[in-house]
Description:
The chain is of the alpha/beta class. Helices cover 49% and strands 14% of the residues. The chain is built from 18 helices and ten strands. A hairpin with a 4-residue loop joins strand 9 and strand 10 (219-226).
Amino acid sequence: MKxxxxxxxxxxxxxxxxxxxxxxxxDYAPDPKGIPLARFPSGHAxxxxxxxxxxxxxxxxxxxxxxxxxxxxxxxLLSARHTVDLGCGAGEGFQALAFNPGHLIGLDIDxxxxxxxxxxxPTLTFRxxxxxxxxxxxxxDGALLVDVxxxxxxxxxxxxxxxxxxxxxxxxxxxxxxxxxxxxxxxxMRRAFSKRALEAQLLAAGxxxxxxxxxxxxxxxxxAAKCPTPASVALAKGIDxxxxxxxxxxxxxxxxxxxDSRKDLVLEARLSSADAHLxxxxxxxxxxxxxxxxxxxxxxxxCLAGLAQLMLSSGETYEALRLARxxxxxxxxxxxxxxxxxVVLESLEPDRAAAAWTLAANLAPDRFDxxxxxxxxxxxxxxxxxxxxxxERLRAYGDDHGTRLHLAFAHAFRAAGRRADARxxxxxxxxxxxxxxxxxxxxRQLRAD
Length: 449
């Protein structure tokens, strides 16, 4: 592993125009396993794991530097008296906030990162905490989420936890990588976002108005105020209920929001109502909601993507294809449209299906169905290394896919001629579910090979 000399980061961290806390830079040396060990002047040695998850000052890493994003955020938080950095990591960007005279706290779930931050910026406050939960009653009037939402399975839950911490009128600054069709996300990155998608997430979580601080380059940076109006509170409660499978409660909350005069709030309520109706199997009601949402904003790709899903489920493949393409014309990063588009091309234009599934898997590398379908196509065309690489990335997210992921691996290993590996995956699947018909059939096929 290539290590940077700690002295090379000093210029990177000093701001020529401000005075702030001076960081304490460690010396890095690999431990017996080759993992960089940060040794601070205090005598503490902390194991670091540089990668896409986080960067460490003075150490080369796959993660992008976020210090410029923190500097942008700091300008929006100058008036905050109590600021919380949700997902502060090793504290590299946190020092940009220390020019704010208010109280600062950095939170992160990783104890090693928090230990590093405490040594790196010893005059500032850091605590270990799961930012997806409002673990205490401590409130703040400023908060940050920098390069965090794309790494979590439920971004809405994290935004709601941030809203819970903020006082009414408090400011949240959000910075996330910009999505594009050819992106290749590395674990733990699950998603990148368009500016519009982030604005919708903030609105649904109870933040408004939204101000664009930066929308060029690899990141988009937004600020928004907590705005607990009855309509926004009802919308957030409805989405919480929808996540918990309480469709009646969700729809009741969305009906409250739909009565509001704010078109953007009503749009989110209509789209969320459509999701609730789809989840309970009421396609007609979902269709009505998508049409209503489309009238509110014809440029929102989610409306057309939802209608495309409905057309696909009813067998109207050509209409589904038209709607999916129209949705992707509006937003090339709309995941649901990309998946419908790929499914339809399987039957109508099979020669283009592989490219369509590649797009869907690029946008949502943690979603089982698009990734496994891409893997199947890759295996059928002899691209076995590519197939297994995508499956390994899917497994690395750590989500529980039951026996399905083991069977997907078994099929891919068998296609690649790795029958011993295929048998092992089938055995694991049968241990979890002895009566699984696909696992039993594949087991018999492997014995016959």
